[in-house]
Amino acid sequence: MSEVRNFRAIGQRVIRPDGVDKVTGRANFGADFSLPGMLYGRVLRSPHAHARIVSIDTKRAAKMPGVHAIVTGADFPGVQSEEITGGEGAGNYKDLAVNVMARDKALYHGHAVAAVAAASIAEAEAALAAIKVKYEKLPAVMDVDTAMADDAALIEEDLYTAGLPEKPTKPSNIAMVMELKRGDVEVGFRDADVVVEETYRTPTVHQGYIEPHACLATINQGGQATVWCCTQGHFDVRSSTSKVLAMNVADIRVIPSEIGGGFGGKTTVYIEPVAVLLSKKSGRPVKMTMTREEVFRASGPASATKCVIKIGAKKDGTLTAMTAWLAYEAGAFRGSSLAPGAMCIFAPYKVDHFLIRGFDVLVNKPKVAAYRAPGAPQSMYACESLLDELARKLDLDPIDLRLKNAVEEGSQAAYGPKFNAIGFRECLEAAKRHPNYALPLGPNEGRGVAAGFWFNAGMQSSAEIHINENGTVTVIEGNPDIGGSRASMALMAAEELGVPYDRVRVQIADTESAGYTNVTGGSRVTFATGMAVIHAARDIVGQCKQRAAATWGIDADMVDWQDGHAVPKPGVNADVKPLSLADIAGNAARTGGPLLGRASLNARGAGPGFAVNFADVRVDPDTGKLDVLRYTAIQDVGKAIHPSYVEGQLQGGAAQGIGWALNEEYVYDANGVMENAGFLDYRVPVASDLPMIDTQLVEVPNPSHPYGVRGVGETPIVAPLAVIANAAHSATGVRIRELPLSPPRVLAALEG
Q1: CA nearest 371: which of 478, 210, 261, 526?
Q2: Are residues 338 and 446 both part of a single domain?
Q3: What is the pLDDT at residue 89?
Q4: Which of 33, 35, 30, 29 is nearest to 284 (CA)?
Q5: d(CA 419, CA 409)
């Protein structure tokens, strides 16, 4: 964007297209689909965190009333090792297949070991109880310290650490080592007047989506399968299911439902391949829905971490050196969110000397999945907390310390490229000016500040635009709507075509009806799929200009498109009437046929997102309970296509981050069994836990997008962990470096 544009549709707070169906209960979610003759699938899960499967006896279960099919790991084909690309989560298809159904070992409590399809849920549950599994229990490895010890029990016996100069001589639970560096940190620390170093820990947490995983699968006698499911990426479901079941990808059709939350946790498969295999074996459609307990025990949470951060600075606050030692739990299979965590940790700051060393570590927990800016909240919690401690040592305002070192256009990011136009400094200045930052604090109250960052993604997207005979517009795209993207696509199509928003309809098509499109994740949809919609609309405009030119008998390059009409360019001597989109569409049969615009692209230039959050908290010294009094989220959003939805993203990220900071954690017993697998005991924030969350949108347009869009969905969750921790320190004078800041932990720190 080289100039300021006056938009007609972009920036309007229009009604959400799918809103009415959702609030009236008409929208179909994953568990709402049914077919005649449908069976119900249920999964038998390991009661042990780590155990060898000696035998599985299904004979009695197979004879029980209503049972039509049983599958175990032996029914699945072998899958070759192949890296998963294109989605939000790192990993390997071989590991994915074993996660879907255990083979030789159960690797976490809740790991699937068998599945049944029966005429009713009760009959399926009874059959599960009749399956006899003989286990040989093995030591459970439940945290990075235990897993990285030289004498640790091995989760994968032939896993050799990747990323080292030479292959290790013996296997370990460390799947990968990575390193990012610049300059010489020893020189940087020698130049420092102050050096601070601390260790921070975050727990295993879940995305907490309200809708559990659910699917319906059927397969015909020709071997073609159809799957209805709640997912953030139905093309990824298709490719993953084809790999796990060794099926031709062309023989799988995936139809996405509406989605009751995902936040990165619905970017992979758990039950979909199982449902397809049960359908194949039974000859009937099979419906599967996870219970809430299964969601917690057997779907992908976010990594628990241990982060050791060291920072050197001059007396005036200039950073001289930064180091990070990051250990991320991957769960029972390689592929944590270590890499993006390492990319983000120092990204907001200019520093000549840094070293980031990270470890992807296996533990006997479920394979982790993405969770909004996967990896960044954990690593930046550590960095932003230590920066707060540094600011106190130097007697500097925490915003001033960040302003002193803030990256700007032309700065080189810690992960490599130079930043284009960015708004980090503008966010810091807006925070310092914000009236909430000047409010007085009372007894036992404190204020915390932190920055957030996410690099955002582009990737592959496709879109089609169909013009109906009356000039109304249908947009066909392939990204499930998890945050209002239908409205964003409609606004961009309306802006480009020059038609009213209410004349545009957006359809999310299945894998056979839309061009290939990467997952709804990485804050990529409004940027990348929006760009495809814009290009498809421009294709339509080009066709309309050609048809108007043919109608008028002039050259196409003599036609302009203004306010939804084809008009002659200034100076063209043509006595003609402007033609609207409806005029051209109504006459399409005479000028070349239906109007159809297409675009497919691999979007480049995703603009990174920066945020600055601050909050005021009060700590009860008698109970350790921490209340959030005020929360302010400020973010560079590029250009807000629909400001209300953008504000909602900031507020939602803050709410989830506050929960992560205060209460959320997986609690395991000594045997690796999760003890709080439900919303009664896994404590997500409720309305009474949260204040009104103030937002401020800073708009520094991303020059790589026609409208200046940069992704906004993930940056909002990055800062809150450190914001709350820093505010708690301000309120109590006691620094707690392990989350969550639950009342017992805070009270123990106050008394200790």
Answers
A1: 261
A2: yes
A3: 66
A4: 35
A5: 5
SS3 62: helix
181 part of a folded domain: no
Q: Do 65 and 55 share a structural domain? A: yes
Bridge partners of 112, per DSSP, are 45
Are 481 and 587 contained in the same domain? yes
Low-confidence ranges of the chain (pLDDT < 50): 1-2
Query: Burial of 239 by CB count in 10 Å (0-12 exposed, 13-18 middle, 19+ buried)?
Result: buried
Instruction: Write the DSSP string, 245-263.
Output: HT--GGGEEEEE---S--T
Give helix 272-282 / helix 234-245 axis angle, nearest 10°: 60
Q: How much is the pLDDT for 571?
A: 87
Query: Are 707 and 605 a contacting pair, CB within 8 Å?
Result: no
Instruction: State the Cα torsion 339-345-350-355 to the nearest 10°.
Output: -60
Domain final residue pick, 583, 603, 623? 603
> CB atoms < 10 A from the CB of 7, how many?
12
Residues 15 and 62: their CA atoms lie apart, in Å, by 52
Residues 94 and 117 in one domain: yes
Placement of tokens 């550590």 in the chain: 382
Q: Distance (Å, rounded) from C-alpha 352 to C-alpha 628?
A: 37
CB atoms near residue 85 (< 10 Å): 8
Q: What angle do CA 272, 98, 271 make, to 5 degrees?
A: 15
Residue 104 belongs to domain with CATH number? 3.90.1170.50
Same domain, 496 and 383: no
Q: What is the pLDDT of residue 387?
A: 98
Q: Note the pLDDT of residue 572.
A: 87
**Statement to judge: residues 535 and 575 lie in one domain:** yes
Query: Quick one: 550 and 511 in the same domain?
Result: yes
**Alpha-helix runs per DSSP H in 299-423:** 338-344, 376-394, 398-405
* Residue 545 structural domain: 19-26+458-603
Tokens matching residue 84: 């998963």
> Angle at Cα 169 formed by Cα 164 and Cα 175, nearest 5°?
50
Q: Which of 28, 330, 394, 343 is nearest to 162 (CA)?
A: 330
User: Do residues 620 and 736 both lie within one domain?
Assistant: yes
Looking at the 3D structure of the chain, how many domains does it have? 3
DSSP state of 513: T
Q: How many CB atoms lie within 10 A of CB 156?
A: 18
- Which parts of 232-364 fold into alpha helices (H)? 234-245, 272-282, 292-298, 338-344
Q: Is the CB of residue 105 less than 8 Å from the CB of residue 53?
A: yes
